[in-house]
Amino acid sequence: MKKPIRILAVSVLAVSVSLFVLSIGARISGIYINTTPSLPVGFYRIVDEPIVNGAYVAFCPPQNAVFDMAMNRSYINRGDCPGGYGLLLKRVFAQSGDTVFIDQAGIYVNGKHLPNSAQLTADADGHALPQYQLQAVLDDGESLLLSDLNPQSFDARYFGLIVRDQIKQVVRPIFTWSH
């Protein structure tokens, strides 16, 4: 009876290795595979387009205590960015000249409330979340990045603004599906 268990173990290993190789191949060819609920799950390709409001972007988080906490709590993955952080995919909602207001009730850009942007006080495990607040007109190098799909996403409502130098690529969905 040990033979079926061995076959199952070998099959699981083969599938895991295949997915790992596929993900490396995808990244080399300019494809991101998003498995998080912050954006539609699926495949995104790097495009040579300007960073505009509404665009999806890949960015390296800044090295700070909020992102250290996020990595320690597995909100973000390990990766090749400074601090050992992984790239994050988010959508741009505000840039230079936009007026942004962030508090526990949510995020407002140019007076318009963004859906699913209210801050949570704790995560699913009961850990307290940062309560970021801001009222400002964004400077030239600043961007507001978040998810309008997932009210539990770790995004600007907890880490604030991202500087343009941290945005590495604009990405465009090529094949996505619902969770």
Quote the beta fraction.
25-35%
**N- and C-termini, Cα separation:** 37 Å
What is the count of DSSP helices, taking H or I runs of 4+ residues?
Answer: 3
* Uncertain stretches: none
Secondary structure tally: strands: 11
CATH-assigned fold name of the largest domain: Umud Fragment, subunit A
Which CATH architecture of the largest domain would you pick?
Ribbon
Condensed summary:
The protein has 179 residues and is α+β, with helices and mostly antiparallel strands. The chain has helices spanning 2-28, 65-72, 156-159, and strands at 31-34, 41-47, 56-59, 88-94, 99-103, 106-109, 112-113, 134-137, 142-146, 162-163, 167-177. It is built from three helices and eleven strands.
